[in-house]
Specification:
Elements lengths: L1 E2 L4 H10 L5 E9 L2 E8 L5 E9 L6 E7 L2 E7 L10 E8 L2 E11 L2 E6 L5 H7 L2 E6 L2 E6 L3 H15 L19
Parallel strand pairs: 1-8
Antiparallel strand pairs: 2-3, 3-4, 4-5, 5-6, 6-9, 7-8, 7-10, 8-9, 10-11
């Protein structure tokens, strides 16, 4: 079983970057049910992360995969939730025969976050898998990963463009300038 450690400091930084009004995003299009984007901090114009997001076909949750310097970050949120910020829950994430255990951190009343280091191979499984099974505390959900392989190719292009040294999906290339400068 692969163990994913939650990097609280890294997630708190990501939470700050995710604040409404502090973000500039570049829409990189859609792939199936996934919307792909690049995020830039509004106050510094610095690149933050590449991400892809989709809605659940089962419940009211929205799933976002972000690739940043901290690794792979999964955010699951729902407007139906009212969670205590800062609380953690044991979590188990399974894709195919691969399983990761760790903790999910409540980052705001409607959302939780989990981080997986690059060396955990989570991104490879996510890209090639057909379903992500999540067990977070007493909550469980299976989310289809339809179109994730094509969407992660677009995510890889984003990483090539803005963060080539941390692209787990493709070859490294020279980064381009920030489109907001």
């Amino acid at each position: 079983m692969k163990v994913a450690r939650l990097f609280l400091a890294g997630l708190m930084v990501l939470c700050r970057f995710s604040s409404v009004g502090e973000a500039k995003t570049v829409d990189l299009g859609t792939s199936g049910e996934w919307s792909i984007y690049a995020y830039f901090d509004n106050s510094t114009n610095m690149f933050g992360h590449c991400g892809m997001t989709t809605g659940s076909k089962v419940g009211s949750e929205s799933l976002t995969l972000i690739v940043s310097k901290a690794g792979y970050n999964i955010f699951l949120d729902s407007q139906d939730w009212d969670l205590p910020v800062g609380e953690t829950f044991d979590s188990v994430s399974t894709i195919g025969s691969d399983t990761w255990t760790g903790h999910a951190l409540v980052i705001y009343p409607h959302g939780i976050a989990m981080t997986y280091p690059f060396e955990s191979e989570f991104g490879v499984a996510f890209r090639q898998g057909s379903e992500l099974d999540l067990q977070i505390g007493k909550f469980s959900r299976s989310l289809k990963l339809d179109g994730a392989q094509t969407a992660t190719s677009a995510l890889a292009n984003c990483l090539d463009q803005y963060m080539p040294s941390k692209n787990p999906f493709g070859p490294q290339s020279t980064p381009v300038s920030n489109p907001f400068k």
